[in-house]
Design goal:
With 292 residues, the chain is an alpha+beta fold. It has one domain. Helices cover 26% and strands 12% of the residues. It contains 6 helices and 9 strands. The chain has a 5-stranded mixed β-sheet with strand order 7-5-6-8-9. Strands 1-2 form a two-stranded antiparallel ribbon. The longest helix is centred in the first third of the chain and has 51 residues. The protein is globular and about 80 Å long.
């Protein structure tokens, strides 16, 4: 704080300022000292170090909320689709999966589920999480070139093709709709391979990025020392926004998820063994959809 000063006016009209408590002989004016300036700078630096992470987390929380709103709208679009299509999950693949003559009409590989959901939600911004927008490529030909006749060419979400396929795409076969996940934040747009396989969720995709390849025995390129790789999954405070079969959406972390949330059936011995096993533990394997 600047010290209060007194003024003295001499006969020649000059006015000299003296600091309170300091004699005129010793000082004409005393302002901030070097020590005082350093103390103020140190206090500002400490406050910045405390507040900047808080502000950063607040901004990320706002983006997470916006993303959750997106996923809720997508969830409602899926519900509307299943209502119109005899209680069946999105389906429909054009036989051409190499050129743009067919890819924009596919809901699966190289296309994406947005191609069948578009009539219910005509807003491309809903398919891009603000934390990772614009996202990664979909609706591209075999050479990677975007199909300009597609409704969308990038997204930040993964659709769970595997789970609905395991129950024949039929809604009545879902055991727990409020638990069955259909979509979440991810660089992996197509969750369509057996869980423990070359392109599976455990071996090479989300769980591998979350835990590290030397934990899961995978090949995703994320070592355990660097896990989780937030460029590819769990970028919302180490969690994702998940879409569920009953139409709701919520935030969760992989360690709180069970394999029954991905493969929502109990038809085989493996299904029973894995249903309540955490997703951060390798599932029992032996047959599709658990391995292959």
């Amino acid at each position: 704080m600047k010290k209060h000063c007194r003024f003295a006016t001499f006969h020649n009209g000059w006015r000299v300022t003296f600091a309170r408590g300091v004699s005129p002989e010793r000082s004409l004016c005393v302002g901030f000292t070097l020590i005082e300036l350093l103390v103020v700078i140190a206090i500002i630096a400490i406050l910045a170090a405390i507040l900047f992470p808080v502000f950063s987390q607040a901004r990320e929380k706002a983006r997470q909320s916006s993303c959750l709103s997106n996923t809720k709208q997508i969830a409602l679009a899926i519900v509307q689709y299943t209502t119109d299509y005899d209680e069946r999950f999105p389906a429909g693949n054009h036989p051409d999966n190499t050129t743009c003559a067919g890819i924009p009409f596919r809901y699966g590989w190289r296309g994406w589920v947005v191609n069948v959901l578009w009539p219910y939600v005509r807003n491309p911004q809903l398919f891009a999480c603000p934390s990772r927008a614009p996202g990664w490529t979909i609706n591209a030909d075999a050479g990677g070139a975007w199909c300009t006749n597609a409704v969308l060419n990038q997204t930040t979400y993964s659709y769970n093709y595997l789970g609905p396929s395991a129950i024949g795409l039929m809604i009545p076969r879902v055991l727990e709709p409020a638990r069955f996940t259909l979509m979440w934040d991810s660089q992996n747009r197509w969750t369509d391979c057996a869980i423990v396989s070359r392109c599976g969720l455990w071996t090479n995709r989300d769980i591998c990025h979350y835990l590290g390849y030397d934990v899961v025995g995978g090949n995703c390129g994320t070592p355990s020392g660097a896990a989780p790789n937030l460029n590819y999954t769990s970028w919302h405070m180490l969690g994702n926004n998940f879409v569920y079969a009953d139409g709701h959406a919520k935030w969760n972390r992989w360690q709180n998820m069970k394999w029954g949330d991905i493969i929502n059936r109990q038809e085989t011995t493996l299904d029973y063994a894995n249903y309540d096993r955490p997703c951060v533990q390798m599932p029992a394997t032996g047959a599709w959809p658990w391995s292959g």
